[in-house]
Amino acid sequence: ADAGADFVVSGGDYCEMKGPMAPINFFRETIFPNLKKQVDAAHAKELKFIKHTDGNVNPLMNDLASIVDGLHSLDPSAGVDIGEIKAKYGHRLILMGNIAVDSLVRKSEDEVVEETKDCIEKASAGGGHILSSSNSWAAGVRLKNCLAMVKVGRKYGKYPVRI
Q1: Given CB 3.0 to 4.6 Å as the disulfide criterion, which of 26, 58, 107, 111 pairs with 103?
Q2: Domain containing residue 100: CATH number
Q3: Residue 163 forms part of a structural domain
Q4: Cβ(68)–Cβ(89) under 8 Å?
């Protein structure tokens, strides 16, 4: 906070492609109380708290939305639809994502442009969306695809959003 940060992003995955890595009760009894302490510490410094986790977070969404200020990665490859998350939680969560890293590796530049426009259209209206990839840029990510994502974000990510 003293250096001018606006938020904290916490890593550590809770989910894999099929869902949570542990039973939901384990998260509620062990993980989430500790996560809440981290969030409270960030809030004490007037910082927002964004939680990163890969995978299918859908089963944990109600719990996470009651604790954190935002979520990254909202992984489309794991069946997470950022439009559905925006509709249900967008009034109270910062959404960060969700251009699939796999798209940045395997898809054409034109396909990445369309995926990025779709993401902005689903998640950016009304604010509270930070356009990003769904995870760290892995080996094999095509620079031209990353630049296309950024270019589309700059062109269409301004408010009011019009695509």
Answers
A1: 107
A2: 3.20.20.210
A3: no
A4: no
